Sequence to fold (423 residues):
Amino acid sequence: MIVENVRPLLWLILVGGLVVSPACDKASPVAPAGTTITLSVNPTRINIDGQATVTAIVRRENGSPVNPGTVVNFSTTLGELNPDDAATDDTGVAETLLRGAGQIGNATVTASTGAASPATADLQIGSLASSMTLQASPTTIGKSGGDVDLLSVVRDDAGQLLPNLAVNYSTTAGILESGGAPMLTNELGEARDKLSVTEIDIIAIDTGSVTVSAFAATAEGSALLEATTDVGIRGLITSISLQVTPGSVARTGGTLELLALVKDDVGFGVAGAPVNFNTDAGSLASGGAVISANGGGQARDTLTVTAADIDALGTRTFNVRAESVDFSGATLQTVFQVRVQTGAPIADFSFSPTLLTVSFLNASTGDPVLNYSWDFGDGSNPPYRFDKDPSHTYSVPDTYNVTLTVTNEIGTDSVQKPVTVSN
Fold:
């Protein structure tokens, strides 16, 4: 009796299994030969933690959609896909999502199915750094060292400020607060660091400045973006210049004032810099001894030249020199060539317009006595003036060619300059 009841039950299970099994074993449709895939990504640019929709349109050779459920396999070179495989719908469309995974660069997404040729599409993940500026504050430090605040600002290829980008600094001297480790830019695209330089650091580098660099990645595997600035070291002598007033001396001799200016590499005068003057003619008030520059880096001396000095010289020029020592111990020298007046006149003048009235200042040189003749270029009557430093009022605004002629017992010389006047 028990056997008879079990037999119909086994029969029902067997029949049910035969009905269910085909549905469980049914395979996904396979794209037939000649199938094409059109792949697109929207948007084509996302943040490093953003996402984009990847769409594959799968068509038969005749243009109709493939069977629903055809599986499309997706892959990417950057970022993460979810899911990796997606089935087509009734229109032959399969979609997946691509998410940024904290990396910056260009992602190439590929879609494939069956015998169809794979299709690809590109997506940019993260904004690519395109430009970077670097500022140092202060821009100079003293010989004893100091602290310098560093600020980098990074922008992307669209000119927008770029946050969450790694920036690191390097320096030729001193210690960085970051230790050179990467730092992420803030929402304003800024990355800050601090440089501390000691007197020992400055002595060790033996140069006039500390060079600081900032680096940022433009894309994975590509070259770094770099910005560089120099922090000058005040007080390290790098240049010397010389002025001589007047710049010429009469044949009978005269006195000339010498002014040397000693500067560091950032253009500041160096207080206490050692300076000494020497000359090919005449005598120096300092006797050639070392003079210490004042707080502005200036050192002064006086040169006296006699007629005998000039006769002994036998030339129309002679040199005056100023010397100092730079930060490396090398000698710095500047030379000024003093002209000996031959006696013949050299015409020259300057002018200062005030509306239509112009004041003229004679700057001619030569042995006395000089006679002056001015032609103001406007046909005025009388056409000439014989004052040393005249003024003249023009009737209309214009540019006039003014000529000055000077004469002494040795000869005559003229100079012409354009003078513009206005209302």
Notes: The two ends are 135 Å apart (CA to CA). Residues 2-24 form the longest helix (23 residues).
